[in-house]
Amino acid sequence: MTLQEHIDTPRVAVVTGSDSGIGRATAVRLARDGFDIGVTWHRDRDGADRTADEVRAQGRRAAVRQADLSDLPAAAAVVDALADELGGIDVLVNCAGTGTATPYLDIGLDTLRQVLDVDLAGPFLCGQRAARRMIRQGRGGRIVNITSVHEHQPRVGAAPYCAAKGGLGLLTQVMALELAEHGITVNSVAPGEIATPMTGQTDTDVHDEERPGIPLGRPGDAREVAAVVAFLVGPESSYVTGASWAVDGGMLRMGPQAGSHLADDSWRRI
Ligand code: NAP
Predict the structure, then answer these.
(1) Is 93 part of a structural domain of the chain?
(2) Can you give the pLDDT at residue 8?
(3) Which mutation among 15, 22, 43 tests ligand 1's pocket best, with the greatest number of atoms within 8 A of CB?
(4) How many helices (H) and strands (E) would you count in the chain?
(5) C-alpha–C-alpha distance, residues 80 and 136, integer Å
(6) Could you tell me the CATH number of the domain that includes residue 13?
């Protein structure tokens, strides 16, 4: 497909977990770029409706469905339901996610399984459903998995999250290898600290926040993550697959530097 054909083709993007935060910012940005959007929510139906309103305000269509990715494999059917309603699927952004703030020694099997389901098995099964449809449609596609800097580096209190996001990062690479022959690219986006409900920062101006441990000195805005997703699902990234894109203000580069500058042992506790 030529660049112009790609631009001219009606396009549908499903963004899981798009009732708030990075998912909402991505849904709205992709609508601005010409995509119709499938929105999923877990608990926040009002948030999903607000996202859909913002999508429609960009002149695009929106379809909204509930999905609890701890209820697998059933919940993954949301991808097909949204694709049926919107007439296909060209892009899947696996954005829904959850985590813990519990010491490794205190985490039970139920919690471990819940995080692994939402953050790893859910994207695995949603990706399968999206890829099968993209192959049937015969015009390629794009899958972006939202991981985290904890795809690459650990965090105290986040053992299941790190296991899931690290797994999702390597899953992304296998998907990229296996789906390339079908014209489907698969990449991950690894955010650092982003101002969203997950980090307790709603309605925050990130430029007012100081983060001495982050090279750029502040948290990120969800729209800064959405901009990278937009590139990865757009026509300009046609030769990019199997990559992990950090959107972290340089946080991942701070390992040894931070390690030699921490003044006390407080990092060992949550
Ligand atoms: P958020 O606004 O709280 O978004 C989390 C999303 O996941 C919400 O849409 C939530 O739905 C959904 N979700 C939670 N549990 C679910 C479940 N059981 N089934 C289906 N959906 C579920 O926070 P966010 O920061 O934008 O997070 C989006 C993604 O970015 C996550 O994968 C997260 O790990 C990743 N990330 C965030 C940061 C950060 O600093 N904010 C950093 C690295 C990575 P409801 O709201 O309806 O419950």
Answers:
(1) yes
(2) 55
(3) 22
(4) 9, 9
(5) 13
(6) 3.40.50.720
Confirm whether 161 is a catalytic residue: yes
Q: 245 - beta bridge partners?
A: 189
| Residue whose CA is at the smallest distance from ligand 1 atom 43 | 148
**Ligand 1 atom with least separation from CA of 67:** 20
Q: What is the pLDDT of residues 115-140, one digit of tens each?
A: 999 999 999 999 999 999 999 999 99
Q: Which atom of ligand 1 is nearest to the CA of 17?
A: 9
- Closest ligand 1 atom to residue 96 Cα is 7
Q: Residue 157, by phi and psi: left (phi above 0), alpha (psi -120 to 50) or beta? A: left
263 lies in which domain range?
8-268
Structural domains of the chain, count: 1
User: pLDDT value at position 100?
Assistant: 94
Q: How far is CA 95 from CA 18, 50, 92, 173, 238, in A?
A: 7, 17, 9, 17, 21
Mean pLDDT for the chain overall: 96
Q: Does the pTM exceed 0.85?
A: yes
What digits encode the pLDDT tens for the residues 141-150? Answer: 999 999 999 9
| Pocket lined around ligand 1, Cβ cut-off 6 Å | 17, 19-23, 41-44, 67-70, 95-98, 118, 146, 148, 191, 193-194, 196-199
Q: 173-182, pLDDT tens digit by residue?
A: 999 999 999 9
